[in-house]
């Protein structure tokens, strides 16, 4: 019983850390999420709710994230195929 009382906070911290990591990964590396953000950004810009300068800055940031995500995806794919060989 004492063991559970001591380890429960550590398990909670681990669970929270894993959830934060999932959110970060989705923000940085999830291609559909990045694509949706690009589409949303384009729509806001076309509606005139975003100045062109701000649009270009945000678009460049999202495109960099997209390129990084594609590179990560490619690296993961290559790693998976190496394991099979």
Automatic annotation (TrEMBL):
Its source organism is Gracilibacillus dipsosauri
Q: What is the lineage of its organism?
A: Bacteria, Bacillati, Bacillota, Bacilli, Bacillales
State the name under which the record lists this protein. Answer: Gas vesicle protein GvpG
């Amino acid at each position: 019983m004492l063991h559970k009382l001591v380890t429960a906070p550590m398990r909670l911290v681990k669970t929270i850390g894993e959830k934060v990591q999932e959110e970060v990964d989705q923000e940085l590396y999830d291609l559909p999420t990045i694509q949706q953000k690009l589409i949303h950004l384009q729509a806001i810009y076309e509606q005139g709710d975003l100045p062109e300068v701000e649009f270009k800055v945000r678009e460049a940031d999202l495109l960099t994230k997209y390129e990084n995500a594609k590179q990560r995806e490619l690296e993961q794919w290559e790693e998976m195929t190496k394991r099979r060989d």
